[in-house]
Sequence to fold (284 residues):
Amino acid sequence: MKKSAHLITQSTQITGLFGYPVRHTLSPAMHNAAFAHTGLPFVYLPFEVRPHDLKAATAAIRALGLTGVNVTIPHKETIIPFLDRIDAAAKKIGSVNTVVNIKGKLTGYNTDAPGFLMDIRQCGCNPSNATALLVGSGGAAKAVARGLIDAGAKKLFITGNDVRQGTALCRRLPRTTFVALSAWKEKIAQADILINATPIGMETTDAPLANAHELHNKLFVYDLIYTHTTGLLQAARAAGARYADGSGMLLYQGALSFERWTNTKAPVAVMRGALLTALKKHSK
Fold:
């Protein structure tokens, strides 16, 4: 096992996270553990970037020579015009969560979609030929939706409070139908997979997205929120359904970002251990 004191020197390469807010993020613990383990001279920092500062912050990646950043809410779509190039997969999704800086040229990638698929498959959920119900239509939801369709989902229902955004997403994807918020729970009985890709449940005081009696025990319920067990996941447990939070997606998308920045195989086990430790500390 390689180890490093992980000292910051004049040779340290900087990576990080652009989002607003970012104080809840556990990504620094995961990535810095990986850098220390591999002995790579990198550091990962959270950058709280307000929406009106995103253009300047993106330009600062070039100006300051950052190696790259992850991108989270609310910037996954709005950062695209400020980049030099968008990877074909990210362009297809319409959302970027990883930026790589090579000699001042910024390329946007999406590691959310493959990270999501890696995690649900690890959980024993096969999206091929499944009917899925997705709540949300923002940047993360776009990646999840594209991942499900590309993995062979038979049918995808999408709902959310932004009807224009949701219907536009459905027009871009085959086998996809938008469902009004007033009617989306009627589709749960048909669904094999239910995914929450909204901030609902981020606060422990939030009402559950769905209650136990509205779910069924053959459902796989996935909530992208990973900082605590949300009301939706508590309902899934009470209904006897299989469920998972988004920590695995965070892990795998982070590992893929790590490999983009370093051209080195990510130490996934180390990253998982650091993430679990950070989650335990966060829950206290």
Summary: Confidence is low (pLDDT under 50) at residues 1-5. The domain at 13-110+248-283 is CATH 3.40.50.10860 (Rossmann fold). The two ends are 30 Å apart (CA to CA). The longest strand covers residues 13-19.
